[in-house]
Amino acid sequence: MLPDRPDLAGLGRTWPDLARPARPARPVRRAKRAGGRPFCRHILKNEAFMDDSARLRDILQRLPQGTVWRPVRDASGALLAEGSGLGEDGLSDYLPGVSFAGKTVCDLGCNLGYFSFMAARGGAARVTGFDVDPLVVEGATLLAAMQGYGNVRFQVADFTSQPPEETFDLVLLVDFIGRGTIVKGRLDAALDAAAAYCRERMVFTLRPVYPLADLTGGDARSLAARYGDDVVHDGRFHLLDYAAQRLADFTPSLLTPPGDPARRFKHAVLFSKI
């Protein structure tokens, strides 16, 4: 009601809307996109994706130099990190002759998941990657989500000291066995762990033979005492021969083209359970 004032007399007749009680405001409806999804949810989804991308870039910047071993790309294919494992002591970008189709795959020392994702693209039924570094595992998990690999998961674990909770059809031990593994006496633990996780086959990358000059921190006497005289001779450590002895329940075969086994690059070796 209007106040009883002479100066406002007739106002209700002149502008009747002003003399009526105000109508309650209608609730504002959120705009929707096709399919009935609220537009704001679409925005939040994009923001979440951007947050994941930013977090991944932050992780890559925080990792020590040399940690990222293979190229890292986001969902659009943009290169985020080149990786340091493509030089003379690295493997080429593929594993020839390996069939992943329908297999459960375990990627030991998975790093950022390069070979885990390769197995998924190759038709693996399920892939589990293990790495000891929580930051690396977080980055790999973000990559799997961003690239849509729903059958790939990553787990923080020191697989050389923790017994497996399950076994897998195919075990990958790629970009793991190297000079430090040999000289520091970690080779047996790595080989034994891979065998413990395996039901059928294993794929390793390694240099079949190391000239002793390449094994800085090791010498013929200490290496022979650890691994045996039969694999340390003629100025070389015969790594593949030792692995074959250690893994007596498996038959090894080279997947990469033959050549001088002492050259400074790694070979892919398939170990099939007998």
Please state the CA-atom Rg, rounded to the nearest Å.
31 Å
Instruction: Give me the count of strands.
Output: 12
Order of helices and strands: HHEEEHEHEEHHEEHEEHEE
Under CATH at level 1, the class of the domain at 86-273 stands as Alpha Beta
> Which sheet architecture does the biggest sheet show?
7 strands, mixed
In what order do the strands lie side by side in the largest sheet?
A: 5-4-3-6-7-12-11
The first-to-last residue Cα distance is 97 Å
CATH topology of the domain at 86-273: Rossmann fold
CATH architecture of the domain at 86-273: 3-Layer(aba) Sandwich
Mean pLDDT across every amino acid position: 83
CATH superfamily of the domain at 86-273: Vaccinia Virus protein VP39
Shape: globular
SS-based class: alpha/beta
Strand content: 15-25%
Number of helices: 8
pLDDT < 50 runs, ≥5 residues:
1-20, 31-48
Please bin the fraction of helical residues: 25-40%
Domain Methyltransferase: 101-175
Organism: hydrocarbon metagenome
Region (Disordered): 1-33
InterPro entries: Methyltranfer_dom (IPR025714), SAM-dependent_MTases_sf (IPR029063)
Provide an overview of this structure.
With 274 residues, the chain is α/β, with parallel strands linked by helices. It has a domain at 86-273: Rossmann fold. The protein is built from 8 helices and 12 strands. The chain has helices spanning 11-14, 39-62, 114-121, 134-146, 179-183, 187-197, 220-227, 239-246; strands at residues 72-73, 79-81, 104-108, 126-131, 152-156, 168-173, 198-206, 209-211, 232-233, 236-238, 250-254, 267-273. The strands form 3 sheets. It has a 7-stranded mixed β-sheet with strand order 5-4-3-6-7-12-11, sandwiched between helices. The protein has a 3-stranded antiparallel β-sheet with strand order 8-10-9. Strand 3 (104-108), helix 3 (114-121) and strand 4 (126-131) form a beta-alpha-beta unit. Helix 2 (39-62) packs antiparallel against helix 4 (134-146). The longest helix is centred in the first third of the chain and has 24 residues, at 39-62. Mean pLDDT is 83; it is low at 1-20 and 31-48.
